[in-house]
Amino acid sequence: MLLGFKTELKLNNQQRKALIQHCGVARHAWNWGLALTKQILDHNKANPDSKIKFPTAIDLHKWLVGLVKSENEWYYEVSKSTPQQALMALREAWKRCFNKTAGVPKFKKKGKRDSFTLEGTVKILGNNKIQVPVIGILKTYERLPQVLIKYATISRQADRWFISFRFEVDSSESSQTSVVGVDLGVKALATLSTGEVILGAKSYNKYEAKLSRMQWLNRHKIIGSANWKKAQLQIAILHRKIANIRKDTLHKLTTLLAKNHGTVVIEDLNISASAIRCLVNHGNQPVHN
User: Fold this and answer.
1) Max CA-CA distance within the chain?
2) CA 86, CA 23: separation in Å to the nearest integer?
3) 15: exposed, middle or buried (C-beta count within 10 Å: 0-12, 13-18, 19+)?
4) In Å, what is the CA distance from 180 to each residue of 102, 133, 184, 273?
5) Contact 132, 138 (CB under 8 A)
């Protein structure tokens, strides 16, 4: 069974600059690949008799090396796996789109959901150090699991940076044997068959007025100015706080269910994958109705 791990990084200014540079290359490769694949789809739609084969991730990377990388020297200042992994993620996004399990991929904007994936020399060193290609050794605040990993994703949330990876663990069975039904709702987060009602955090409603005011005050600032960047950071921090409250409530619910029940029965709705993943990681098997 694959288990995910995510923790905050303890960085210096030089490392922050390197991470931002890697994010920029990953974003550029994604946007270039997305523009190219959209042109191919438009061409195939307009010319059904002379269609161009939709490129694989390998094709995109070969074209990137030949057409883009040679003209942009800053591509060579980051790990070669950064644009390659971005194009692989783009190809998977198109695959989900073609299978009608997700929408059309969108262009990425600077400063929004910045992230990149590294492959190769990714190795955990000691309790709170991890080595990654080009950037070197990064420190973490939290103790790291002593496991072997091949990939690591680094992402930014407001002014904080996080590293995440997956590793193999042996699946475990819950010692609990009781069965509980869960009805997910709107007014309440969940209602259990035992009669217990779990209320949601309503984090957005709590901070909606504050968020609206911050966005309203930022409306006339010059885009790209120091004051605009400062305001954008404050808005991002508040968004992160709202999301963390929501995640905390979800984790508490799944922990409660996993610790006290062996089987969880839920409705066959579009339930968040993170909720199912939390239950499975606790050793429980969710059942759909």
Assistant:
1) 64
2) 10
3) middle
4) 31, 46, 13, 19
5) yes
10-residue mean pLDDT series, the chain (289 residues)? 89 95 96 96 92 94 92 93 95 95 93 91 91 94 91 91 89 76 81 82 84 87 87 87 87 84 74 50 51
Q: Is 13 left (phi over 0), alpha (psi -120 to 50) or beta?
A: alpha
Residue 22: how many CB atoms within 10 A of its CB?
A: 26
For 192, half-sphere exposure in the C-beta direction (CA atoms, 13 angstrom radius) is 17
Q: How far, in Å, CA of 112 to CA of 14, rounded?
A: 21
User: Beta strands 263-266 and 179-184: pairing type?
Assistant: parallel
Output 275-281 pairs: Cβ under 8 A, ≥24 positions apart. Answer: 275/250, 277/4, 278/250, 278/251, 278/254, 279/254, 280/1, 281/3, 281/4
Q: Is the Cβ–Cβ distance between 280 and 194 less than 8 Å?
A: no
Which structure tokens are listed for 60? Answer: 């995109």
φ/ψ (deg, to 5) at 253? -65, -50
Whether 38 contacts 106, CB under 8 Å: no
Residues with Cβ within 8 Å of 169's Cβ and at least 6 positions away in sequence, in order, are 1, 2, 3
